[in-house]
Amino acid sequence: MRLLRDVPAETKDGVRIRLMANIEFPTETHACLERGADGIGLYRTEFLYLGGEVAPSEEDHFLAYAEVVRALAGQPVVIRTLDLGADKMRLEAVDAEAERNPVLGLRSIRLSLRNPPLFTPQLRAILRASALGDVRVMFPLVSTLTELRQAKRFLADAMRELDAQGVPFRRDLPVGMMVESPAAVMMIDRFVKEVDFISIGTNDLVQYTLAVDRSNSSVADLYQAADPAVLRMIDASLRAASQAGVNASLCGQMSSAAVYTMLLLGMGLRELSVPPSSIPEIKRVCRSVTLAECEAIAARCRSLDNAPDIEALLHEELQKLGF
Ligand code: PEP
Ligand code: MG
């Protein structure tokens, strides 16, 4: 497939969609640039813990971020803080035996907040990298306002420390959160007052909304991104973000499946973050539709009451576009 690097992700009626990339390793940066990504919408940082016996140092973090930020040359890079635990790598800090239900256990932001020696070097490195380009920081799996405020306090402490040491960083570093739990959605009107952006992580949001373990193959048929309950979660998040004037993106796997693109645009998303390999196809869909068509499709989806019917409608509409 052509990479469509030099054409924008723009609908037929001229609405510009920001098509960002999800990366898991700095080496993927090249693949993003050659497909004309508008930036990195999700830089997963768990790779820093892969295989290592010891935790990465602040310098390890910094080098990994600086490489990507420099390559992106001024385009945004959203760095997500550690999302360890559950289906990601286990750490000594997490007793796997004692975790009878790791998806509901000590993972992600919960783990970071309880382990300052783990969290602070990462925040310091992100801040240092912010002096090199358009860096933004994003906290994963935030479920309560207290967690968000605690995470922001850690960030403020790291800023104070760097300041005292005369290390440059961007003082107005944008701070965002992932919307991945029903609790975050229920409280989203409050959250959007305290963040600069949100990114909807549908991989986890589907899991927690439908109470289906995303890594359990015996319930894979119940894991459905198009479930009306999930769509209502997304709708509510987008409405609150829009009312607060806060930028919203969607970075779960749902954003990389062409079948959902028209629905997501119709629901109001103007920014998607997808694996680099999916950029050309999603861009092609954006360029094949008008916003009015997408909004009509979203309205029809909202009137349906189950995922298979919504999926069938979306497949039919995608086929009409020649996909
Ligand atoms: C998500 O949950 O949608 C997400 C992007 O985060 P991850 O898949 O890394 O948990
Ligand atoms: Mg997630």
Give the count of structural domains.
1
The strand count comes to 8
CATH superfamily: Phosphoenolpyruvate-binding domains
Structural class: alpha/beta
Which spans of ≥5 residues are poorly predicted at pLDDT below 50? none
Helix content: 40-55%
The CATH architecture can be given as Alpha-Beta Barrel
Strand order of the largest sheet: 7-6-5-4-3-2-1-8
CATH topology: TIM Barrel
- Helix-strand string: EHEHEHHEHEHHEHHEHEHHH
Largest sheet, if any?
A: 8 strands, parallel
Name the beta content range: 5-15%
Mean pLDDT: 95
Chemical compounds bound to the protein: phosphoenolpyruvate, magnesium ion
**Number of DSSP helical runs:** 13
N- to C-terminal separation? 12 Å
Structure description:
The protein has 323 residues and is an alpha/beta fold. The chain has one domain: Phosphoenolpyruvate-binding domains (TIM Barrel), CATH 3.20.20. Helices cover 44% and strands 11% of the residues. An eight-stranded parallel sheet has the order 7-6-5-4-3-2-1-8. Helix 2 (58-72) runs parallel beside helix 4 (116-130) and helix 10 (258-267) packs across helix 13 (307-320). It starts with 17 loop residues before the first strand and ends with a helix. The mean pLDDT is 95. The site of magnesium ion has 5 residues, from helix 8.
